[in-house]
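Recall the central idea of this unit: under ordinary conditions, the amino acid sequence of a chain determines the structure it adopts. In this exercise we apply that idea directly, starting from the sequence alone.
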Amino acid sequence: MFLEDVTVGKGETLAVLVRAYGHKASDEAATWALPENAVLAKRGASSTLVAGDVVNIPIPWTIKSPPGLKVVPGGAHIDIWRSGQRGTRLSWVQTVYRDNQPIGPNPNAFCVDACTPDDDLPFYWTDAEIAGDPNLRRHFSDEPARSAPSAAKGTTRWRAITSMAIVTRKRVTVVDSTVWGFNLTPTGHVTTVGPHKASGTELAGHLSMLARGVGTKGISFSKEGWTFRAPPP
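Accordingly, the structure predicted from this sequence is:
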């Protein structure tokens, strides 16, 4: 668990904020009573919050990865579920290494998924997809696949790092980053890789790639004002 420091916006209440970050409304009192919110709590009830205050909201959510990946023709399938409620400031991010078989107009081996951008946000699911299925705030799934590479290309090594994303304005905190993927030989044989927790080096690369990724405007997310971090200690 870590604490997300949230600057209260105009008209926002603690009840609204705790629900935005995946809590039940009944968690408001426990959040207000946290030692980290003691200075604010000296005022009395949480209704005393005003715009500009900084309140700490606990992020205890964890993800449940499958014990293994499902092999599909030419690739692999993954399903990940997050604990907690849906919220409105919780999402997913994924960076990908596509090795010798990048797909679409983006020729780069490394990219932020969707690798062919479908909007101008750094998240895996679009707003329209979440509107169609609000459970996508809690559920991640992906099924990448490729044709068997030529013998000259050699084995295709497709890798992804997937993270729960805690979103505060344009700051994204990545949590429970999971590495997974597959190897595909020229004979069409698939071997799954992972899932396993990202190492420090893998996490650093993940954060760097998120900052350098681009949306439909062709401008990097960092230049668009987005920042990406691991949970604070």
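The chain has five helices and twelve strands.
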